[in-house]
Amino acid sequence: MNSMDTARTRLERAAGLPAILDAAYRAFDDMLPVIRDHEDPAGGAFTAFVMASALAANGRDAVAYAPSLPPAAAGSRKHEHAGSATALDAAIALAQVGRVLISRLTEAAVLAADAVDRSACAEGARQASRLVELLAEAAGQ
Amino acid sequence: MTSRATFGDFANAAGMHLEHAASPAGSAVRLAEAKPRTVPAEQFARSLDSFLTVMARYLSDVTAPVAEVLASNRHRLGPWARAGVQAQDALRNAAKALRAGAGRDNGPSRRPGSGAVTCGLDAAAACLTTGRDLLHTHLSTAPDGTRLDRTEWGPVITSAPVVHALMLELGIWARQVAAQGGEMVRTRAPGRRAADDARSRVDAACQWLWQLHSGIQAAQYRSPVATADTMLLYAIPANVLPARAGPASHDTVPDLCQGAAGSAERLRHLLRAAVPQASWSPYLTADTLREAAACGTAISHHCAIVLQSLAFRSGQQQVPAPVSTGLLEAAAAAANARGTWLQAARAWQNLSTENRGRGSATTAEAVDLAAWTGRLAFADPEWTLAQGPRRPARPPESLAPGPGDLQAVVGAVHEASDALARMAAADHARIRALARNRRLHSPTRTLPEHLDIPRPYGPAPDDRIGALLAAYHDATAASAVATATAATVATDIRAPSQTLAAARAAVRTGSVALPAQSRRSAAMRTAAPLRSPDLPGPFERILRNLGVSAPDTLLRAAAIDQEGGRLVLEATQAARARPASASREASSPPVAAEPGTRALTTGSPRTATASPRPTAEQVAEAEL
């Protein structure tokens, strides 16, 4: 879960609209390989993870439209991902990151002066909310 | 397949009413009576006129594609097309015969659907009118006269198998009415002139209805309508979509099957409307397509689980081995389709569109279908798409407690698979439209760093678009295979969805409808001058001897001669191929003549003396 821990920490420490947007974008993007690891038909939570993948990509694309999103820092495009222990652990970790995303993007929507920024943050928060609802139930939370 | 009204409901009712066409409406027909009461002849004549109008409308529908064919070219038509045109002529003549002199004594004929149901014939006409209306709920007409399909049943209704089945039914109804009318005519009461006149007109009209029936029977002989095609015609439902609904925790397996089938039908309906709008629709976004692909993955997964369970259960219930094998194959095909849908969903990962965030009706319906199929696949009555790894699959004995419970579940899976196949093909088409209109983009952060794009999104690279289209191509193919294997099992065990399989097969045979129909003009209705064959056949000779010169009439006689001669030739050739002892003398007395040829045998001084009946071989040699 290193990537999810890193994503959560980055989100919690981000200050200012551009930093929050950057952290949110990277969090959504980092979710995708974690989710993909558990898109296993024999895994039991297959449907939940398949739907979660779509929501994570939707959330990332929503944040990408924010004009205040800064260009990607050098080396930030690479995913650090060590693999997940179990589907349940992955669902719990993803849900935790999702909750932080909701909180920070909602906060960013208030901070944003530009209407397009506000719209992007609101849409990102909405996708994160759907993601949390899906994965929290999968995790039995 | 549906609890809605079907064409068969009205056709069956019409058939029952036609058994007592001449009996007063609402009167109990007591089988013990040797002679059931009949309505007065004048009343029957008026009802028959209304009935003929309804029949004419049906024939107009089925002969529309060949309506502009000149009479001199009708011999080029196939057997059913020719039968349809000839049936139209017969019906026109029946109406003419029925109405000749009607105004003098009995007042104007009643318009169909005027409300009064005085006898079984009126009730039958009302049923057939409603049945035709039901078929037309699936069709519409563009301003230029082109027929448009409003639903997936539209192409089925205009397919050759269903059109031929409908014509066969028309022939049967015509025979029923002709028999009833003839029976009424033969029951002569001492006479009022008006009643005698009405009987005479009814008799003449019924002769033409026998002619109509004979023509259709000739087509049936040459190109038989399969029973399955008639069943498909009868199964066509009214165009009323099931209401959108989600599964409830108290739903039983049959409820879930019905819900899944209804959701699948709704999804197919929405997809038909969505594809033409692909190039501009703001609701067609990467978000919705991505989620739809995820739903496709989930639905395939659920179908695979259900089919695997059914295969196991069929082994326990000692269902025939081919069915068990078919279920296993269908489960494998569904699992394969799942893999392709997953690849399609993943191919969206680094692609997007300029519009975001709007929901689409098709995606919402796909989510519903995933929920319905998930409830079938998993044991938890509260199961949702968010269920995690601790949720077990539904036990096989819960899915199909008895052997008879297989049909409903297989039917639901078949419907869901068919809807997925449609969705894959539709989304493939829509993505091609997005690509053509340059509506596909990629987040700049997912593009190579050396590309200096000062915007959050850049044009999607060709390789990503290619990979996306290839993934959808694979999903389309795999979903089609999954549907076909499920359809095979559904047909074998007579699942409710076997009609769906039959409908798809009928559409594949092609439509009898022309791609476009030009408006009819008065000039085009006028046939070119006709030429009779140099050597007229027996029917044409008789008419000419009677002094008949109307081109349409002579041409009809020529067509009957030609068809009869061809029939005799075939029989002759078949007889020559058989051993001599098995051949039959053609000069032996014929079986009781059809009433349509009564004019030749009544001995009336008004009829010409018929030529001595030639042998079959003589006819073949002389006429052909």
Descriptive notes:
The complex is a heterodimer of chains A (141) and B (624). With 141 residues, chain A is an all-alpha fold. Chain A contains five helices and no strands. Helix content of chain A is 72%, strand content 0%. In chain A, helix 1 runs antiparallel to helix 2. With 624 residues, chain B is mainly alpha-helical. Chain B has 21 helices and five strands. Chain B has helices at 7-18, 41-63, 79-99, 102-106, 120-136, 154-157, 160-186, 193-222, 227-235, 253-274, 286-316, 321-347, 361-377, 396-399, 406-436, 462-492, 498-509, 522-525, 538-545, 551-577, 616-623, and strands at 139-141, 147-149, 352-353, 440-443, 457-459. A three-stranded antiparallel beta sheet of chain B has the order 3-4-5, with no helix packed on it. In chain B, strands 1-2 form a two-stranded antiparallel ribbon. In chain B, a hairpin with a 5-residue loop joins strand 1 and strand 2. In chain B, helix 2 runs antiparallel to helix 3 (79-99) and helix 2 (41-63) runs parallel beside helix 5. The longest helix of chain B has 31 residues, at 286-316. Chain B is elongated and about 95 Å long. Chain B starts with 6 loop residues before the first helix and ends with a helix. Mean pLDDT of chain B is 80; it is low at 104-109, 514-534, 581-614 and 616-624. At the A-B interface, helix 2, helix 3, helix 4 and helix 5 of A face helix 11 and helix 12 of B.
Biggest sheet statistics of chain A: none
Counted by DSSP, the helix tally of chain B is 21
- Give helix and strand order of chain B, one letter per element, not per position: HHHHHEEHHHHHHHEHHHEEHHHHHH
With strands numbered from the N-terminus, the spatial order across the biggest sheet of chain B is 3-4-5
- Count of alpha and pi helical runs of chain A: 5
Helix percentage of chain A:
over 70%
Most extensive chain contact?
A: A-B, 45 and 39 residues
Low-confidence stretches of chain B: 104-109, 514-534, 581-614, 616-624
Largest sheet of chain B: 3 strands, antiparallel
| Separation, N- and C-terminal Cα atoms of chain A | 18 Å
| Shape assignment of chain A | globular
Percent strand of chain B equals: under 5%
